[in-house]
Input
Amino acid sequence: MKKNPQHRIEELRDLIREHDHRYFVLAQPSISDFEYDQLLKELNQFESENPHLITPDSPTQRVGSDLSKEFKPVQHKTQMLSLANIYSEEELVDFDRRVREGLPQGEKVEYVCELKIDGVSVSLRYIDGMLKVAATRGDGAVGDEVTNNVRTIRSVPLSVKRNFLKDLLLDEFEVRGEVYMELETFKKLNEERELNGEKTFANPRNSAAGTLKLQDPQVVAKRPLQIFLYYLFSEKDDLKYQHENLQLLDLLGFRINKNFRLCKNLDEVIEFCREWEAKKDELPYEIDGVVIKVNSLKQQKILGNIAKSPRWAAAYKFKPKQATTLLNNITWQVGRTGSLTPVAELKPIFLAGSTISRATLHNIDEIRRKDIREGDLVVIEKGGDVIPKVVSVDLSKRSENSEEIKLPNTCPACGSKLFKPADEVAVYCDNSLCPEQIKGRILHFASRGAMDIEGLGEALVNLFVDLGFLHDYSDIYSLNQKREKLVNIERLGEKSIDNLLNAIEESKKRSFDKVLFALGIRYVGAGAAKKLAQHFLSIDKLSEATEEEIESIHEIGPSISKSVKRFFSDENNSKLIERLNKAGINFSLEKKETESSKFQGKYFVLTGTLFSMSREEAKEKIEKNGGHVSSSVSRNTHYVIAGENSGSKLDKAQKLDITILTEEQFLELIK
Ligand code: IVH
Output
């Protein structure tokens, strides 16, 4: 007898979900791969015959085919906090004391200790039991939507068991956790990339982050990511304890890390930290510490947050991993500003998930202070940051004929003479046409926070400079005239060149502040570039400005103003700008458009921390609607917008009887 397709489809989905859960969440499969594939095949068959019965939470719908060109911003319902770090047991004692001081006297405090997974935090929103939105943390208030990529993680339920939901009345809830890549997957991925001549990832965290932000979910699905969930939030307020929430997550089918422990007191917390510091390397994934959370949600509420981290939780960080290896020699790297940085070339050694063959030595003073020499046996360390450093030298193993390191006499890249500014430790190559400086400047110009030209990375820039296609960054925009020659370069080919040329064309849309940052004016970082762009609105105005005018901008100091003046007085730079201008690059900012005049003539004061936007953004919104923002409260103030932890300005406003707006009320007003 032929079964009703709807019934069989649902039966198959439930079975597959059950086996996915067993395999990907519990790591306890109960059927063979073959049997599993048969189920999936049958479901696919039924669904292709009955396409109207396909639902988004069907196991066949994990991997979408839509490319996400841009990741849409997602406003988090409650802020995604980060944690204050703790580096020693003494600091743990302080943390416990502060927690108890923040609670009614004599109240008992229990802690949940969890492993701190070294990955990327994400938030998953479920509505009526179905996964609706997945987002990255972003700045804590607004993240990027990565739903399609998160759906490919097989341990993430696309829908949760509805019968549980009914009992618990969780018709809308949010879970948060950490997406990570297992060490084994990471190693394989890097091996593959190396074989294909692609850049390898520095560590599993970067590779998880990179994978999560890929445009094509089909590629994401091939690089298996994993997830641990550690946080459950629902408007319904009958959640009471963190350890119960973890159990509830488990019950709902989410993958939690079972190595958590409910600790009755600080001693038990310390024991947990010691235990995991000693056995962290036994895990198949990286952890970089222990997260300690006050167990009672009621107590968490009382304790609250300071700025962006909670008072009720902290991250105990493990000591960085160290290893000993041979320092073969020291080379000098020339940066885009000409500065020479010493680099330790090491005998390759595997440490904390990757092979290390180089470490930065910062500058000559540091080398002298640590007395580092070629041929030394050195201790290297890989902390939270990606770049490993040399910690110390094992002097007992030093050979007798070793010599102190000296600064080179000339630039190692171009042979030009070097100079040392009086107020700096670094030495500089004096030749602005030095190939290494050129490469550095072009690479910076094309980099992410600047013109963001996808595909124009280190390898291509080096190649194009060496082959004479690029002499400066303005040449990037004439590459399209050399297409025929470019496609003939070995290993490149038509498709990759066309993609690159499209990305270059696309970069012409970048706004003036990005362009200004991309120019690589010394001391002008992304933030300063934005301020300069907003103040002067065009490159002509900026290049004509006096040092005093530039310095009059809030938070712009004399080193920036001097450097800007120097940049524009160099004839070569003027020529560069002219060429970029001809290519159609944005050298001015549209004057801010006004959206309405509803705040015409009104004065606002901002105080405290805003959650959904920065102060700059709030100011922009007010000005766009015709209002003004001043820094102190007076009788002329019309509104005070009070964020979290507002202080004396709020008191003053209350005294003067000025209208006080909460952030939500302000958001309503500007809708
Ligand atoms: S709790 C207030 N628990 O560590 C709660 N975080 O800065 C904040 N992380 O952004 C997060 N494992 O990405 C929590 N078991 C865990 C975690 C964890 C890793 C990450 C998370 C967060 C960062 C803390």
